[in-house]
Each structure stands twice: as C-alpha cells, then as structure tokens.
Amino acid sequence: MSPSQVFAAVDDDEAHIRALIARWARSVHRGDIDGVLAGHAEKLTMFNVAPPYEGIRSRAAYRVIWPPLFAWQALGARFDIESLDVTAGTDVAYAHALVRCGTPGELAERPELRLRLTFGLVKEDGEWVIAHEHHSFPHD
C-alpha cells in the first residue's frame, strides 16, 4: 500500500467513525434504542454519568440503561454534538466529543455545561464498532 493509499484509508476510517457516532447521537436524541445499539460491540464496556457506577459490560446491559434517558429527553432535553475529534489506526480508534446536553432550563441556567464523551472503537469483520464509551459531566 502506498503512502497516499494509507492516508486515504485513514481519512475513510475517520469519516466512517464520524458517521457512526453521528447516527448514534441522532438515535439518542430520537429515543431510538435500536439505533443507539447499532454499531456497538457485544462486549461493550461503558462508564456513564448515571448508575451503575461500576459500569456495564455488555450490549444487553447497555440496552437497559437508556429508557430513563429517553424519558428525560421527551421533556425537551437536547443532545447535540458540538465537537468531535477522531483518531484512527488500522484496527483501533478513539474519539472524544463535547455535547450540549440538558433541558432548556438546565441549559439556560448553565449555558457552558457540556457532556464529555469518549469512545474506544475496534474493527470487527472490517467494520468499526464502539467497544467502549465514557460519559461524564464536569464536577463543580
């Protein structure tokens, strides 16, 4: 593979990862559990803002944590990615994002507040999947 082919592959991988995360965020905003689960590894690990604080360790456990967030989102909360940085290797990648996440009242009270997301991705059968997520808010 020539150097230009390597760079093109990396750019293509980054574009695929950005698209995967954008689809995920749109699914979160819509409350679409199947869309949220799509593109995630079976052995997913996630550390979230909400319990369980020891994290979850499977896609099945990941499915269970979303309904309360979807109910909160139905109150008019936002979940909008403001920035997303991606670094991709040949079979491992990571990404981090800042998300405007909150109800209109919460965002009016604290307009600077952003949810911080970190993703670890791996290639499985030639496709990028999310194998790790970490969600956090800054602690005051």
Q: What do the pLDDT scores average to?
A: 90
* Total beta-strand segments: 5
**Shape assignment:** globular
Spatial order of the strands forming the largest sheet: 1-5-4-3-2
> What structural class is derived from the secondary structure elements?
alpha+beta
Helical stretch count? 4
Distance between the termini: 49 Å
What do we call the CATH topology? Nuclear Transport Factor 2, Chain: A
Report the radius of gyration as a whole number of Å: 16 Å
Give unreliable regions as ranges. 2-7
Fraction in helix: 25-40%
Just name the CATH architecture. Answer: Roll
Query: Could you give the order of the helices and strands?
Result: HHEHEEHEE
Largest sheet: 5 strands, mixed
CATH class: Alpha Beta
% residues in beta strands: 35-45%
Count of folded domains: 1
